[in-house]
Design a protein that fits this description.
Blueprint (H helix, E strand, L loop, with lengths): L2 E2 L4 H17 L10 H13 L3 E2 L14 E7 L2 E2 L3 E3 L11 H4 L3 E3 L2 E5 L5 E4 L1 H14 L7 H14 L12 E10 L12 E10 L10 E5 L17 H5 L2 H9 L4 E5 L7 E4 L3 E6 L2 E4 L9 H12 L3 E4 L12 E6 L3 E10 L5 E3 L6 H15 L9 E4 L1
Helix pairs in contact: 1-2, 4-5, 8-9
Length: 386
């Protein structure tokens, strides 16, 4: 158990008794008289109690936090942001999200620095990517200002869940947008729901910044050419679950997809972008079926700032054997170095060593240093939450 609620047995009994007394007597705190002490326990336990979390061993999963923020698009405009402590959403049975997949989400992170300040990474870029997805599947776009306000408010309301500096954990931020209006015919909704919730997370891959194994399989495609691969919609991830399960059963971290049209070129790497390094060059695939990773864009800029070249181009599968280092990158994983790729069609193996490569390590450490405030942000990526 990573999440421990340490409320002792007798303290719990006292709290329940005190609450019962309040209900039965219908009296306020200020008229509590001899029961002031009990009420103080209630206030302390309920308002200021902090869940003890093993930050250094936190998995990449959902942990309940205090609040989320949400709003609705109705009559052609967005409403005011609402604060909610509920983990549930009331959805119409004919909502387009349920029947026609009108849904998009984003993922970004906030980090606590050595100075105890909270920094959020490239929020505006996530807002713009969600707008691109909204256009692609005909949903109402969330304006920059509303997106940023919602993210900032969700962080502030849950700042006690931002992991401490040096723990290796972060606060994962999940903006969610979907068609909430009822439609039976295939058409865009007239109403939409937007929310932001947060949860503290550890590394996406349990290995952390350790090389993993990947499987090339031609049995599955992540997305069709000219389809929704470049948009962050849930359907793309649902389509990857079967292949991911196959990889896991074989002892692999995930699947390295090939292009759906010809099966000749590297596509996505599980839920992340792929990159390879050789000849002082950072190389990543170019394809309209690949989600434009904000982490990948950041790594490209960092590589150039380090004096490297950067290329975004088709990568034929044969080129895998020429790379010095390869990896997967994305918000969740940041960088996951790859030590071995196995092609299940012929058993061919591509080996890259059991330790992270020097350039991957440098890129990883430099990006984390910027995100946490240890290194100056010369790119304008980080926003400090006041």
């Amino acid at each position: 158990m990573f999440l421990l609620f340490k409320i002792k047995y007798f303290s719990g009994i006292i709290i329940y008794i005190a609450i019962l007394i309040i209900i039965l007597n219908r009296i306020s705190f200020y008229k509590f008289g001899e029961y002031n002490y009990l009420c103080c326990i209630i206030i302390y336990k309920v308002k200021f109690a902090i869940m003890e979390i093993d930050w250094k061993n936190l998995p990449f999963g959902y942990v309940k936090t205090d609040y989320n923020v949400r709003t609705y698009y109705r009559n052609g405009k967005w409403g005011e942001l609402e604060i909610s402590s509920s983990e549930h959403i009331d959805i119409h049975i004919a909502a387009t999200v349920l029947h026609y997949g009108q849904e998009a989400f984003e993922g970004l992170k906030a980090f606590r620095g050595k100075d105890d300040k909270i920094r959020v990474f490239r929020c505006i870029d996530n807002a713009r990517r969600m707008q691109s997805t909204s256009k692609g599947i005909m949903m109402a776009e969330v304006p920059d200002e509303l997106f940023i306000e919602a993210v900032n408010k969700a962080i502030k309301l849950n700042k006690r869940f931002v992991p401490p500096y040096g723990s290796g954990a972060s606060l994962y931020i999940r903006p969610l947008l979907f068609g909430s209006g009822p439609e039976v015919g295939v058409k865009p909704a007239k109403e939409y729901f937007f929310m932001v919730f947060v949860t503290p997370v550890g590394p996406y891959f349990k290995e952390g910044f350790k090389p993993v194994d990947m499987l090339i399989t031609r049995e599955f495609d992540r997305a069709a050419p000219l389809g929704t691969g470049k948009y962050k919609v849930g359907g793309n991830y649902a389509a990857s679950l079967t292949s991911m399960e196959k990889a896991h059963q074989g002892g692999f971290a995930n699947v390295l997809y090939l292009d759906a049209r010809e099966k000749k070129y590297i596509d996505e790497c599980g839920p992340a972008n792929f990159f390879g390094i050789k000849n002082n060059t950072y190389i990543t695939p170019k394809s309209d079926s690949i989600l434009p990773s904000i982490t990948n864009m950041s790594l490209i800029d960092l590589a150039i700032s380090m004096g490297m070249k950067a290329e975004r181009r088709p990568i034929p599968i044969e080129e895998l054997e020429t790379f010095d280092e390869v990896g997967a990158c994305g918000t969740a994983a940041v960088i996951s170095p790859i030590k071995r790729i196995v092609d299940d069609s012929n058993g061919k193996e591509y080996l890259y060593g059991n330790e992270p490569g020097p350039i991957s390590s440098k890129l990883y450490n430099k990006l984390l240093a910027i995100q946490s405030g240890d290194e100056a942000d010369t790119f304008g990526w980080v926003t400090v939450i006041e």
